[in-house]
Here is the input.
Amino acid sequence: MAQPPALSEDYYLRNFETVLRDVLGRYGDLLRPEEETRISGFLALPPPARRLLVRMLTRQGPWFRPDGFHYPEIPDVPGALAVLCAGGFCATGASASTGDLVALLRKDELGERLQGFGIAFPRALSRDGLAELLSARADPEALKAALVQSLHPVAPRDPAWVRLAFFLFFGNGDQDLTDFVLADTGRVRYEAYPVDPRDRLFQARADVDFLITLREVQEAFAAAEAAGDLAAMARITGALVGREGHPGVRQSRRFHRVLNEVGRAWERRKEPARALECYALSSRPPARERTARILAAQERWPEAARLAQAMAELPLDVAEEKFAGQWLRRLARRDPLAAAWVAGHPPPEPLPGLRLTVPRHPSGSVERAALEAAAQDGWTGFFTENGLWQGLFGLAFWDQLFAPLPGAFQHRFQSAPADIGGPDFHQRRREAIELRLEQLAVPGALAPALLRVAEGKRGISNAFVNWRLLTQELLGTALAVLPAPVVLSVLATMAPNPMAFRSGFPDLLLYRLDPPGCVLWEVKGPGDALRPEQERWLRHFNREGVEARVAWIAYG
Here is the structure.
């Protein structure tokens, strides 16, 4: 096995500076003067000082003991600290709380401090217990002065500029320098899509600040609702709905979740107009369901029926699809459009199922137990669940997923485009997706095409492909035994909203090669129940001509 490439001694600094330089070049106009000064000032520091600050920023802090810094590439730690403190990048212990400083002490040092203050040292106490005792019994001012003098603690000063830079670079608050390391060591490989430094996810600083503080906005609204402060609720709602038109905000899944939460709050307050205003801007379920319910409550039957039919024809997730069918049947007595839909969509037939009594599998897995039971009846199989079908989607639409569209790729550490969960994903790629489906529908084209992609891309990160599960054996077998039209029907169903339809697939793919054939099982152990998304895919496969059933397992 090839050894991963060795990292340079200051790899972390190089990666950190890559983020800063990208942000200066791409978003310099969105930075406030003090932020731009701070970033430029950091880049002008001597290398040892830069290295030490990044080391602190990437360790758990915020407070540190200089005697704990042992880095070969920073031989003069005191000198680097002096530069950082003089430049305003580090704070000294005078600004720390007593609790911050006590947290830096080892257990034996806590005992010494207790004795120094004349406090009995109960050796049986844990380190946390000793810290609590010292903080409670010692004079806080005297303790702080002693610790500042002996520990010389330091902390990065006001690192908000760092959080801002990483948010702008990655476009989210979840990724950090770890992504650089995983890529640089070869542990994760990414597709070689182009990243245009002129392509920006954010156009206005207000949008950046809004998204960074969105959790606080969410909490503020919840507090206002709990207090019954309608004016504050209205003010926060106005700020939310006023952001919808901005690209970076529209692509934030949290933003749409908050819109739904705020809409439900206004529903509870019997304010349907405000609720509808929120739902109209949300691209995430259950916004359309809640809208349909409000319209029906207002006896706006034609509007409710049209919306329910739109949900039935192009659902955003399984829950929407199920709701739409049920709701149209309820509206059929009141609206001719709903009645016409119901006439063309009879209620679904009961799902096929089987009941098996099996011994417990040594692994405890009910799916493994079901596989062994199926083997006794002549079936060979794989435990695939969602991984197989997601993988087929990722392979089939690899080029479409990684198409270099504006805003899709902000950095080189993406396993999917930035808009994958947003309302624009399918709309912006509709023609390319439809063309790809036509190409794969040519008789004999599907399996060779997907196998070629797998061979050429194996190991490259794709949000839909789990390479450890999607082995050559599984992929080759699945494409050999599954009818191509069935696979194509799944791909076409997932394409409009792949994130919403990526789960609920049957657990087991069972097959025979002589004569060729396959069945799909959703395995349910004792006390387990079928979820809506699982029911949806089972019906889909049966409708497309592949036997898919629920295997109800009992142990005996």
Remarks:
- The chain has three domains: 11-170, 205-343, 353-555.
